[in-house]
Design a protein that fits this description.
Among the domains are: 287 residues, Rossmann fold, CATH 3.40.50; 124 residues, Ribosomal Protein L25, Chain P, CATH 2.40.240. Helices cover 24% and strands 21% of the residues. The protein is built from 13 helices and 25 strands. About 5% of the residues have low confidence. The structure holds adenosine-5'-triphosphate (ATP) and magnesium ion.
Length: 589
């Protein structure tokens, strides 16, 4: 299935209004955004909201969006996550592929280091060339330079308080903090100590670099926040070059500045960091237009949870099979489940951008997925719970072939042959010996149509010694086949089936919501609200064309739902399909 690439009509929201005003006023004629994941886990649907916002705004305005790995905390990060995140973003917005995405040059060397001519980069224009991906660690030299500049200006100091002591000095939201006893060190002493921190003279935690702002500020983030800490650990990008690492707040605003970001869009928990973002940039007398940060509400989706820490627990305790388990809201899991990237992008646009945090109903996401798949997925026949049906008036070698449309509304998707034979499989619950009222499927004395086949009429059943149903016998009326005289004859029910001769066996994994409650993340007790029925496996019979289904193709198995070949567990000797989603919302009732 191809990913249809059009960027949707831009919705209207407060961030796009700001962007439009900044273009109109000439403040930022060229829009540059960024998406800054930390390479310490997999991307999830919440990240997709941010990715679609940042890349979407860039595309809508002929701007640029940088993928920048926010890799300032080497103890928790790994190149494995750099690769998976890059792949996930490529998949998600590949359909929008465009020169302006920083993703266009995979593996290209990122922004050049500028170790020598330090003053160069300081005044140089922001890198205009999109190179991909970017890493905060590309700018360690620059960050260090900026830190020294703050020291020289008397705006940063080296502090010897331990983490616990610093915590005690910080105060509380209602009480002001106290100045560190090291706050009044001279510029010379601070510079000397900071250089020795960088040179590796002190152990982890012995000293920090802190901004000198205001220990009495009502905003805790302005109470002389940490800028650098000592960590004698190798970094996945810079190896052993550094033993001091900048903190997020220091690195982020400066990374934005160095890349010429105009609008730095993040989730609302960063609102309280914004005064610090602005303070750092404004304290450095930077020559170019400064980036500005804007905050929007994160995505919360019912019946699932996003937090890396919690998903990690689900993986570690084997509640799911891994980070790409199709029940998880990770992009890797959604992709393996068969959710189209285009559906995720449409969802991200549809839910909109506001400042107010809310819980989006699962049905909103699922509805978008169904709409997308209904429009794009080819139709196939498959039987999940097979029951043998023998058409007694057909000989063993009799075969009636007909062409079944691959898509009812899109002729360009073509047709495929479907073969009616003496023995076929139907769904167990499409037959009832003792039918409930209004049962429109096969029952004693009744007739139904086999889709793309003909009308059949019940004859009798065969049971084993214990009285279990083994097979159902019926007579086929071949004159009701397409193109035959009685093709238009009507019966109350139509059921799906596959020829027993042609059918291929497959393991089909039926997924459902992972949790039984709408807000599993509301407490730490989320392991106790797992849905025990979130995965059921059945041995299905599928029409033979599904044997060679391409990876990532999603099919509608008629009357059942949407299904995709599993990307991990398909082997030559056995097919595995995942159910992407049912045809209707089974939770609505
Ligand atoms: P988690 O909370 O799952 O551990 P994170 O926020 O720490 O994730 P980052 O890699 O720091 O993960 O996130 C990268 C970007 O994605 C940030 O700009 C962040 O604001 C944004 N983001 C994270 N979660 C969401 C969400 N639920 N909705 C929208 N944007 C999000
Ligand atoms: Mg984060």
């Amino acid at each position: 299935m191809s990913d249809t690439g059009a960027v949707p009509e831009p919705p209207s929201d407060f961030i796009r209004d700001i962007v439009a005003a900044d273009i109109a006023s000439g403040h930022t004629p060229q829009i540059v955004t960024r998406f800054p994941p930390e390479p310490n886990g997999y991307l999830h649907l919440g990240h997709a909201k941010s990715i679609c916002l940042n890349f979407g705004i860039a595309l809508e305005n002929q701007g640029r969006c940088n993928l920048r790995f926010d890799d300032t905390n080497p103890t928790k990060e790994d190149t494995h996550f750099v690769d998976s995140i890059t792949e996930d973003i490529r998949w998600l917005i590949g359909g929008w592929a465009d020169d302006r995405l920083s993703l266009q040059t995979p593996g290209a060397k990122p922004v050049p280091q500028n170790a020598e001519g330090r003053e160069d980069f300081f005044a140089a224009p922001a890198s205009a060339e999109p190179r991909a991906p970017f890493f905060a660690s590309n700018y360690f030299d620059q960050y260090y330079f900026f830190a020294e500049r703050l020291i020289v200006k008397g705006l940063a100091f080296v502090c010897d308080l331990s983490a616990e002591e610093a915590e005690a000095y910080r105060g509380t939201p209602t009480e002001p903090g106290r100045n560190s006893p090291f706050r009044d060190r001279s510029v010379e002493e601070n510079l000397d100590l900071f250089r020795r921190m960088r040179a590796g003279e002190f152990p982890d935690g012995a000293r920090t670099l802190r901004a000198k702002i205001d220990m009495a500020s009502p905003n805790i983030w302005l109470r002389d926040p940490l800028l650098y800490r000592i960590r004698h650990v190798a970094h996945h990008q810079t190896g052993n070059d550094w033993c001091i690492y900048p903190l997020y707040d220091f690195a982020h605003c400066l990374g934005d500045y160095l890349e010429g970001i105009t609008h730095s869009l993040c989730t609302i928990e960063f609102e309280v960091h914004r005064p610090l973002y602005d303070w750092i940039l404004q304290s450095l007398d930077l020559p170019r237009t400064l980036p500005r940060q804007f905050e929007f509400a994160p995505l919360n989706l019912a019946y699932t949870l996003f937090s890396k820490r919690r998903v990690l627990k689900l993986v570690a305790e084997k509640a799911v099979s891994g980070w790409d388990d199709p029940r998880l809201p990770t992009l890797a899991g959604l992709r393996r489940r068969g959710i189209p990237a285009a559906a995720i992008r449409k969802f991200a646009y549809h839910i909109g951008i506001t400042k107010f945090e809310s819980l989006i109903e699962a049905a909103v996401f699922e509805g978008t997925v169904r709409d997308e798949l209904n429009a794009t997925a080819q139709r196939r026949l498959g039987v999940l719970h097979p029951l043998k049906l023998v058409l007694t008036n057909l000989a063993e070698d009799e075969v009636y072939e007909s062409e079944a449309p691959n898509h009812p509304k899109d002729e360009s998707q073509g047709t495929r042959p479907v073969r009616l034979t003496r023995e076929v499989y139907i769904e167990q619950d499409d037959f009832a010996e003792v039918p409930p009222p209004k049962f429109r499927r096969l029952k004693p004395g009744g007739s139904v149509r086999l889709k793309y086949g003909c009308i059949i009429t019940y004859e009798d059943v065969v049971k084993d010694a214990d009285g279990n149903l083994v097979e159902v016998h019926a007579t086929a009326d071949l004159t009701t086949r397409r193109g035959q005289p009685n093709a238009d004859q009507k019966v109350k029910g139509t059921i799906h089936w596959v020829s027993a001769v042609d059918a291929v066996d497959a393991e089909v994994r039926l997924y459902d919501r992972l949790f039984t409650v709408a807000e599993p993340g509301a407490t730490e007790d989320f392991m106790s609200v797992l849905n025990p029925g979130s995965l059921k496996t059945v041995s299905a019979k599928l029409e033979p064309s599904l044997r060679n289904a391409p990876a990532e193709a999603v099919f509608q198995f008629e009357r059942l739902g949407y299904f995709t070949p599993d990307s991990q567990d398909n082997k030559a000797d056995g097919l595995v399909f995942n159910r992407t989603i049912t045809l209707r919302d089974t939770w609505a009732k």
